[in-house]
Amino acid sequence: MENFSWKNIFGNAPRVEYLRKILSENKFPHAVIFSGVEGIGKRKIAENCAAALLCENPNDGEACGVCASCKILAAGNHPDFYVVEPEKSKTAQNIKIGQIRALQSEVLLQPNISSCRVVIIDGAEFMNNAAANCLLKTLEEPTGQTIFILTTANRAGLLMTIRSRCGTVNFDKISAADIETALKLRGVESERAQIISNISDGSFGRALKLEESGGYEIRNDALNFLENLLAKKITVEDIFERGKTFSEGSKENFADFVTYIQKILRDVLLIEGAELYNPDLKSKLAKIKIAEKILYELFDEGKKIQRKLNSNANLRLVVESYFLKLRQIVEGR
User: Fold this and answer.
1) For residue 271, how far is the Cα from the chain centroid?
2) What's the sign of the alpha-carbon dihedral 291, 293, 299, 301?
3) 4 near 52, Cβ under 8 Å?
């Protein structure tokens, strides 16, 4: 949290202006959900809001950056600022009841140096039922001096009772043009930045991962898999091997793989009638022949798996069930 300037936030300008307005008017709600896909800056925006709320001399909804509160916050040890994040294991992420109980102990105390306390629950959809119900009790009886900001990529994954007790700010995906510009400012070559921005699905965080962790290779693997699938060259053994490989990596890598499959299918369907997600692959995509009915079935299965990936389902089972279902659709079983 070294820099609290809103100038460092790009995309979602209307939402940012709204937040600055309610901050400057002291109308920020006691509990709010920031909802939107991963990688669009919800956490950073939440931190900027926290800085403004804790600042001694905020101006136009922005922290001054020089007061004692801002300096302590930048140093990472502000006593009135609290963050809860999912605990990560190999197969799942969870926010557990112990984390929420520890939070409750903190918010019972009076603020130390600021006029309020600010709590960010990042990835709030990963609260298990016990943790969510524990948090609900705190939201039902707010102290008045604690402000909660819950960030989530899956608002529907939160208890309805929690959603009803919080305001919501919905953030849009970031435009490909804005992502391309941001990548170029980071030194990414122009053509590569354009391609990555087109396949990042409106997420700058995903664009950075694509640039840093072999996104090109994952996309090409998705294309090769789809070509082999349609040629009926994918065996059950291949599927189990892929399940093992993906389960040893991250859920994000598999999510990216599925996203590429979805975008490739969409491009194949609209090869001549729309702007493509993968314009550099147009000649290859034009050679893919697939019945429209099968294409839609494959696409629908991808959407189902993307929803499952927002849950705590076992990754290997999700991977294998997805590939087996695609194989069944193509082979007419």
Assistant:
1) 29
2) negative
3) yes
